[in-house]
Amino acid sequence: MGNRLIDLQHITKIYDGHPVLDDLNLYFNENEFLTLLGPSGCGKTTTLRILGGFETPDQGRVIFNGQDITHLPPNKRQLNTVFQKYALFTHMNIAENIAFGLKISGKSKAYIDDKIKYALKLVNLDGYEKRMPDSLSGGQQQRIAIARAIVNEPKILLLDEPLGALDLKLRQEMQYELIRMKNELGITFIYVTHDQEEALTMSDTIVVMNQGYIQQIGTPEDIYNEPTNAFVADFIGDSNIFPGTMVEDKVVRIFDRIFPCVDVGFGCNTPVDVVIRPEDVELGAPGQGTVDGVVSHLIFKGVHYEMEVTACGREWLVQSTKMYPVGEQVSIHVDPFNIQIMNKPESEDEEAVVLDV
User: How do beta strands 314-320 and 79-82 pair?
Assistant: First the structure.
């Protein structure tokens, strides 16, 4: 990663007496693909709008390359925003749409023509200069919106759920396109989504947000494999989250059954949350594992089977390439390394500890 490019310092934003962001501190590095991920209303789009200059924080500062830009209007910032709604000018052809920002800044015709060709090549739409927006598919329109942002040579590209309106296959294609563009252009991408799969696929760094607070910052691998709390574990991928008791180091009790684990430092007889990913639940013949149960639900997902197993009065979500039919008696085994132990939060909306990365 490059140098630190943007610093959000103690950002607070309040709407109708309700804090959407509460003393948020976050920084972004040069040439990084950073994703703000969280459910609707968690503050991620407000964070992006404050970065873009479309909102002003009630408290705090936005520092860009050492300069305070908190009150600088959007057109004076070295960043461009691509929204979910493409906002192309319908009465202009593609070339005119892409050239719009460059004309305003008084660039020469030769420079502009050159840039249009370069941007269209970058988004794989060579030769589309004379086409009108309404003749393009949703995916093509989104590429033009990205091309229009890129020609202004921003240091940072802000993307607000830009693939949300596309169908699944097109979205996956655009994810790879965006990664390729980011690598070719060497600019910082700051991406907002509520889609965990999108975040895991594309990002160098993921910032998980909830209720105006940062819950965890880390690489996709960190966030998936080492979630810091039950909210992150539940939001990123599928999880079994059970109440448990840490009996002592490396021993946890779940539903009155003892499971060996690898976690230490939680004390003795401490209430904890236990997270087990569905792909880490191993099924076998009754009596072979720690707990016996019965398969209550089965779906074929293409790559694997997804099953629900009722054991100890609770449903366990299981993903396996081996199929066990509904009604079959099975046992459950979990490797100690695949059991994640977490402290229970003091209250429902306890603020997460923000870690510097």
Answer: unpaired
165-213 residue pLDDT tens: 778 888 888 888 889 888 888 899 999 999 998 999 999 999 999 999 9
Residue type, 88: L
The Cα 322–Cα 278 span in angstroms is 13
DSSP string of 85-135, one letter each residue: S----TTS-HHHHHHHHHHHTT--HHHHHHHHHHHHHHTT-TT-TT--GGG
Q: Under DSSP, is residue 72 helix (H, G, I), strand (E, B) or coil?
A: coil
Residue ranges of the chain that CATH labels 2.40.50.140 = 239-343
For the record, the structure tokens of 179 come out as 């990664």
Q: Enumerate residues 6+ apart whose C-beta is below 8 A from 218.
A: 205, 206, 226, 355, 357
Across the chain, how many H-helices and E-strands are there? 8, 20
Domain with CATH 3.40.50.300 in the chain: 4-225
Coil, strand or helix at 224: helix
Cα–Cα dist 337/339, whole Å: 6
Architecture of domain 239-343: Beta Barrel (2.40)
pLDDT tens column, 84-110: 776 789 999 999 999 988 888 888 999
Pick the CATH number of 4-225 from 3.20.20.70, 2.60.40.10, 3.40.50.300, 3.30.110.10: 3.40.50.300
Average confidence (pLDDT) over 231-251: 94
Instruction: Dump pLDDT digits (tens) for 127-163.
Output: 999 999 999 988 889 889 989 988 888 999 999 998 8
Contact in structure between 208 and 216 (CB atoms under 8 Å): yes
Do 346 and 295 form a contact (C-beta atoms < 8 A)?
no
Cα angle 250, 255, 260; round to 5: 20
**54's torsion region: left (phi>0), alpha (psi -120 to 50) or beta?**
alpha
pLDDT at 23 over 90: yes
Report the chain's mean pLDDT, rounded to a whole number: 91
Residues 6 or more apart from 319 whose CB is under 8 A from it?
238, 278, 279, 281, 301, 304, 305, 306, 307
